Amino acid sequence: MNSSLGLRLAVLGALVWLAAPKKAAVELPYIRCGTCRWMVSVVYALTAQDRAQGKAVDELTIDEHASKLCKDRALPGRWMRHLDIVEEEGPLKYSSAEEKNQPRPRYLKLVEQWSGRAECKEECKVLRLSCQEVMDEDYLDMEEVVLAMYRNETATKDIQDQLCAKACKGAPVPLPQDFTREDYEFVLMDIDEAMMEDRVDKAEKPPEYDPANPKDYETVRQQILQEL
User: Fold this and answer.
1) Are 120 and 194 in contact (CB under 8 A)?
2) Separation between Cα atoms, residue 197 and residue 189, nearest integer Å
3) N-term to C-term CA, the chain
4) Taking a C-beta distance cutoff of 8 angstroms, is the pair 28, 129 a contact?
5) C-alpha to C-alpha distance for 189 and 111, rounded to whole angstroms
6) Is the pTM of this model over 0.70?
7) Residue 83: what are its φ and ψ, rounded to 5°?
8) What is the Cα gyration radius of the chain?
9) What is the pLDDT of residues 90-140, one digit of tens each?
10) Model confidence over 29-63: pLDDT tens digits?
11) Is 86 helix (H, G, I), strand (E, B) or coil?
12) 68-to-9, 65, 90 alpha-carbon distances in Å
């Protein structure tokens, strides 16, 4: 990973950890694989969109997408605000009468909610922390991601399997039987604010603009409001 991207990710990682819910780290092993696959699919989709629009696609362009995957206000990071973390039961493999009375294994699943965009609340912050963990702990090699997208030689699922082999190693991990979590409601953000976010995306911004910084976002937002 180049030093510039590495430094940006390290700083962002520290900020993400401070902003995350206190119990968030407990859930990370159970959503790591799903997080990794989403990260790969988002960079794949954005790179494919650039090519379809006739834009020049080079390693720097792809690196720029990848560096913003964990920033929920940036376009590459908005995937986190379209996902709901839900608990679901898995099947029991009965081998004895006694096991039939055991509780079913439970898993955490990332469910798409494309009816609209949510504010980044509790579960989005967990996903943000998971995203950063996948990067920081090398569950996903970002240099490999950039190179694979640049070569444009693999289908989405194949490239997810390839790049997320470490994050998705082994069978899905069930939750401990005594594990309890609060399931937060997926609440859509106000449509006017969502439209404002889209305007900020397209607006001209200073080179040091950081979508993860609320002050930077608010500065551009106020400029747009003054022009309306």
Assistant:
1) no
2) 11
3) 42
4) yes
5) 18
6) yes
7) -120, 140
8) 19
9) 876 655 655 666 788 899 999 998 788 888 889 999 999 999 999 999 999
10) 999 999 999 999 999 999 999 999 999 899 999 99
11) strand
12) 9, 6, 34
